[in-house]
Design goal:
This protein is α+β, with helices and mostly antiparallel strands. Helix content is 26%, strand content 30%. Helix 1 packs across helix 2 and helix 4 crosses helix 6. The longest helix has 17 residues.
Length: 262
């Protein structure tokens, strides 16, 4: 690590204030070009510590920048990981206030819920599928706190991977009998398809993103607990939304989920 604890705490407060008050900031690596991966995850962890101290609770985990579309869009080639807290959750068909966000985008997700704990190193797709209770469709709303949605990998990790809201719905389907790689995904905005893809866009297999998360946590002496909800990563590129937009996601064999921006 290159940053001291005081700097980590200051940057965490800076980024969390941007999220809570919906204002954009410049990427933090401009002022701290020498910060490393451990610094980035330490800032992310300090933001979570602040939320937990306020009474928020973790309701899920996420993998980000896992699809080829997202990697190309953001100019990166390594997945990133973050957490989801209670007030991020929006009911299926619910409304999302754009006044609480900066420049939101939506992306379609295949969501996993575990029935057994997963821990790396060495976690693989087979272990993930064996530990999965069910999968379901989800819409993640991302909202980078960085100006013009422009950032590098360390800055976005520190910003909890642009996390802000998510919507779960559709059917809870067991993975037995499903080929998650070939599940078709259609994201619609205001009734028109705006992005299409298949599960294989997420690291070749969505379960690979969960395995990567387990191995990431395992390197830190942590695990994915049983009963954890995990967003496996955007299947397509992220799509910008604004007040008045309605978004619907359909995933083959998993049903649909929707939300509206006001």
């Amino acid at each position: 690590m290159k940053l001291n604890q005081q700097t980590i705490e200051q940057l965490a407060e800076h980024l969390e204030n941007a999220e809570l008050q919906a204002f954009e900031v410049v990427k933090i690596t401009e002022a701290h070009p020498d910060m490393d991966w451990d610094d980035a995850y330490a800032i992310q962890a300090e933001i979570l510590r602040r939320k937990l101290a306020r009474g928020n609770r973790v309701v899920g985990l996420k993998a980000g920048l896992t699809s080829r579309g997202k990697m190309k869009q953001m100019g990166v080639d390594t997945p990133v990981f973050g957490w989801l807290v209670d007030y991020f959750s929006v009911p299926d068909g619910g409304e999302i206030k754009t006044s609480e966000l900066i420049h939101p985008k939506v992306e379609p997700e295949i969501v996993f819920v575990t029935k057994r704990a997963l821990k790396g190193p060495g976690c693989h797709i087979g272990a993930v599928l064996a530990a999965t209770d069910f999968v379901m469709p989800g819409i993640e709303i991302i909202d980078s706190r960085y100006k013009d949605f422009k950032f590098d990998l360390k800055s976005v990790i520190a910003d909890n991977c642009s996390s802000t809201r998510f919507v779960l719905g559709g059917q809870a389907a067991p993975v037995a009998g499903l080929d998650l790689r070939t599940l078709g995904v259609v994201l619609e905005k205001n009734g028109e398809p705006v992005a299409v893809g298949a599960g294989a866009a997420v690291l070749g297999h969505p379960a690979a993103a969960i395995a990567a998360l387990a191995n990431h946590l395992g390197a830190r002496g942590e695990e994915i607990p049983a009963g954890t909800m995990i967003l496996s990563g955007g299947v397509t590129e992220a799509v910008s939304v604004q007040a008045g937009d309605s978004v619907n996601l359909r995933i083959q064999s998993l049903g649909s989920v929707s939300t509206r921006f006001i």
